[in-house]
Write a structure and sequence with these properties.
mainly beta, four-stranded antiparallel sheet
Length: 67
């Protein structure tokens, strides 16, 4: 079954692990596990910023106003 566009943005996620270039999260309702690649390698992700267990939400970049 294909995911509906935007479905991942309707879910809340808990941080599972954080590495400098990857963030692994798990959906609270769905249980789906996602790994997010850091788009800015010059600024590493840190456990202080994303501690394991932290509740986060994803935002849709295509919904942002254009410059």
């Amino acid at each position: 079954m294909k995911a509906i566009r935007g479905e991942i943005f309707d879910e809340k996620y808990r941080v599972v692990t954080v590495e400098s270039q990857y963030l692994t999260i798990r959906g609270v309702r769905s249980g789906k596990v996602l790994t997010i690649l850091n788009p800015d390698p010059e600024t590493p992700l840190t456990p202080a910023e994303y501690p394991p267990g932290k509740l986060i939400a994803l935002s849709d970049p295509s919904a942002s106003p254009l410059n």
